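Re-running Hydrolase to confirm reproducibility after the cluster update. Everything else is unchanged from the original entry.
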Amino acid sequence: MIRFLLHSAFFLDNLILIDPHDGGSIGLPRPEVKAPLVLITHNHYDHNAYEIIPHETVKVRFYGEFNYKNYTIQGLKSYHDKEKGKRRGETAIYKITSPDGRVYVHLGDLGHMLDEKTVEELKNPDYLMVPVGGVITISPSEALQVIKDLNPKIVFPMHYWVKGHYMPLEPIGPFLELANKEGIKTVPLPKNEVNEESVEKGTVIYYSNLA
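Result of re-run:
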């Protein structure tokens, strides 16, 4: 099960929380979960609020590989901009493989296109979490190209403007328009919780009550 907690925060299988925000500092509801493992892609205020989350273990901008309760977590180095981090620093990409073989990829605040080596490492995941709001990450059109390169079964857009959000990001609309032009199915869901098995493969999932 995947729960989207707004911005870039996702809770996987009631076990792994990625990039929690504190809610108030970005104008969104605070995540209310208990997470045994918290993964932080980079140490920016809208991604690193693990102190407010009851947790056991935290990894901040982790590069390498480790195992946690039969999940394999890989952290790959990427950058928050197109200048190898000179403007906004580094950000980790997390590839998470569950005990039953499902693969989740969370791209963090990716600010550049992926090189061939990274594409090879990440391609064909079951679930891809990709920033689509531009401004300080890849643009909607770049996000679409990353999706094509990685060929995920299901896509979860993230890091875009929603009502109440303080950050000047683009809303999800431009990305959805591009996806629809490419013939990619986009599905609005009325709540933030997804049972992946009920979702058609090759689908972009977004949340209609947030856009």
